[in-house]
Design goal:
- This protein has 127 residues and is an alpha+beta fold.
- 26% of the residues lie in helices and 34% in strands.
- The protein is built from three helices and nine strands, in the order E-E-E-E-H-E-E-H-E-E-E-H.
- Strand 6, helix 2 and strand 7 form a beta-alpha-beta unit.
- The longest helix has 12 residues, at 74-85.
- The model has no long low-confidence stretch (mean pLDDT 93).
């Protein structure tokens, strides 16, 4: 199926996302679901998506977000995302954040983000 997860010491199963969508940097693997859960809880974030920019094994982890409708400025939201990243061991190495107007999604499943397309968009912002 291509799904990743693990059992913790209490026997609970934790889902980590799709193997094909994890981000592989030179030093670390970043899994979409646990990372996105951290950033989805930042005020002003509607939803987030972790993508990798660059070749597998040397990818730059980038968190893209869609904003909630509201009064928070882009600059404030980006500062809040960077601050949140520093709070957790699994996100402390993420330093790149982008605001996207509307994620590309599967038309059959509005919640299924097309991360491959989003990664191409993100790569264009860093070239």
């Amino acid at each position: 199926m291509g799904d990743l997860g693990y059992f913790d010491t209490d026997g609970r199963l934790w889902f980590c996302g799709r193997k094909s969508q994890r981000v592989s940097s030179a030093n670390k693997l970043f899994h979409t679901v646990p990372i996105e859960g951290i950033f989805d809880s930042v005020p002003g974030v509607f939803r987030s998506a972790l993508v990798g920019v660059g070749p597998v094994g040397f990818q730059l982890p980038v968190v893209c977000v869609e904003k909630e409708k509201g009064l928070i400025s882009d600059q404030e939201l980006l500062r809040n995302l960077a601050s949140r990243a520093l709070l957790y061991p699994q996100t402390k190495d993420i330093t790149k954040f982008l605001i996207h107007p509307s994620f590309p999604v599967d038309i059959r499943h509005n919640s299924k983000i097309k991360r491959e397309e989003l990664a191409v968009w993100a790569a264009g912002r860093f070239s």
